[in-house]
Amino acid sequence: MSNWNPSSWRQHTALHQPVYPDQDALADVTAQLKQSPPLVFAEEVRSLRDDLGRVERGEGFLLQGGDCAESFAEFSEQNLRDTVKVILQMAVTLTYAGSCPVVKMGRVAGQFAKPRSSPVETRDGVSLPSYLGDSINGIDFTSASRTPDPQRMLRAYQQSVTSINLLRAMATGGFASLQNIRAWNLESVQATPLAQRYGAMTDQIHQALDFMHACGVPLEAFSSLQGTALYISHEALLLEFEEVMAREVDGCWYDLSGHCLWVGERTRQPGSAHLEFIRGVENPVGVKIGPTASVDDCLNLCQQLNPDNQSGKLLFICRMGVEQTQQVLPQLLGSVKQAGHKVVWVCDPMHGNTETASSGYKTRNFDRIMAELEAFFAAHREAGTYPGGLHLEMTGRYVTECTGGAYAIREEDLHHCYETQCDPRLNAGQALEIAYRAADELRRFRQR
Ligand SMILES: O=C[C@H](O)[C@H](O)COP(=O)(O)O
Ligand SMILES: C=C(OP(=O)(O)O)C(=O)O
Ligand SMILES: [Mn+2]
C-alpha cells in the first residue's frame, strides 16, 4: 500500500475527534494499548473476507446488528447473551427462508465512539460538550463527565476483550448449535405472534435434523451445524484508538480492533483522515452511503478502498431514507455495476429514518424502516444487482425506542423503557419481525 502507515491519517483532516486536555495522559494510554494483545486475529479477518466474498457473489447474506453505542453502564452477561440470541434467531430465519448462508456480525465489542450532529448540548441554558461515546467521555451532564478522558479507551478495550470472550464461547461452545435452536428463544418475544411463527419453523428444522440423523447422517461431524462464526465490527471513528490497534502480520497491516470496520456518513468526505486510515488495512471495510452520495463519490470510494477489486473487501452500507432509496439508489447501483466494481451492498434502514417525537424522544418508525428495506430490494431488482445484507441498530431486550411493530409501540409509550445512549434501537420483537420480512424479500429475490 503506497505512502500509507498507521499514522498517515494525521496528514489529513480528521473530523469528529475529541480534544484531549491532557496530551501526556493520551500518550500514556496509547502506549499501553499498543502493547496490548489484539482483539481479533488476522486469520479470522481473512475468513470474514472469504465469507463476504460469497455474499458479494450472491451466495450469502450479511446480518450486522447491535447497539448504536455500547455503554459501560449496560454491560452485562445477560444483555450480551440476549443480543446474541436474537441475532441467531434472525440469522436462522433468513437462512431458512432465503436458503442461503448468513454471515453474522455484531455492532459489538468496540462500538463506543459517536459522531454527533452538534458539538455542544444545551440544557436549561447550560452548554457542555456533547456526549461522544463511552470510550471518549461520559453521558452525565456535568463538565467533568463531558471532558474527554483517554483512560476511557482502556476501559472500552477491556470491555471489548470480555465481550469477545463471551461471544466466542457462545458461537463455538455448543450454544449456537442448530440442535439447540429452541434455547435461543427470548422471553420478551414469547407473547407475540412471532413466537408461534418462530416455533413452527424450529419444529420443522428439528424434524429435518431428526430425519437426517435417522438416515445415518452424522450431524455432530458438521461443524457448521454445531457452531457458527460471529464476527465483530464497529465504526472506526476514534483514530487514536484504531491507529494503535493496527498490527502488521506477514507483511500486511490489519486493524485488529475488529473483524470489520466502517467509516460513517459524517467522516467519509474525499481526502478524509478516516478514509486514509482504512484504505491501508486488509480488513473488509464499509462506508456509509447517505442521501447526498453521488455516483462519483461511490466510484472514487471503490478506487480508493478496493483498488485491486477484491471480492468481499468493500461494503457500501446504504442509509438514505425511503424516498432517496427509491429515487437515487438504483442509479448508484447501476453505475457501480457498469464500472465493474465489486461491492457488498448492505441496507441500514435506521439512520435515514430518525425523527423527533412530539415528546422530544429521538425515534424511528417500524413501517418507515420496513419501507426502506423494501425499497432497497426493489432498487436491486431494477439495477440487476444483489442485495447483500442488513445493518440494524437493535438490542435483545424489550426497549421502547422505535415506534410500531408487533407491540404497536406508540409515541406516548416511548418513555416506558427508553435506554439508548444515542440512537433508538429495535427491540428483540421488532428486530425479529424485520428479519421475517427481510427473509420474505430475500426468498422472492433468490427465486427469480
Ligand atoms: O449514530 C449515528 C449518529 O452518531 C447519531 O445519529 C448522531 O445523533 P445526534 O443527531 O443526536 O447527534
Ligand atoms: C453513526 C452512525 O451512522 P451514520 O454514519 O450512517 O450516520 C451509526 O451507524 O451509528
Ligand atoms: Mn446510530
From TrEMBL:
This is Phospho-2-dehydro-3-deoxyheptonate aldolase. Its cofactor is Mn(2+); Co(2+); Cd(2+). Binds 1 divalent cation per subunit. The enzyme is active with manganese, cobalt or cadmium ions. It comes from Oceaniferula flava. Signal peptide: none annotated. Belongs to the class-II DAHP synthase family. GO terms for molecular function: 3-deoxy-7-phosphoheptulonate synthase activity. Phosphoenolpyruvate binds at R107, E265, R266, K288, R319. PANTHER family: PHOSPHO-2-DEHYDRO-3-DEOXYHEPTONATE ALDOLASE, PHOSPHO-2-DEHYDRO-3-DEOXYHEPTONATE ALDOLASE 1, 2. It is an enzyme of class 2 (transferase). Pathway: Metabolic intermediate biosynthesis; chorismate biosynthesis; chorismate from D-erythrose 4-phosphate and phosphoenolpyruvate: step 1/7.
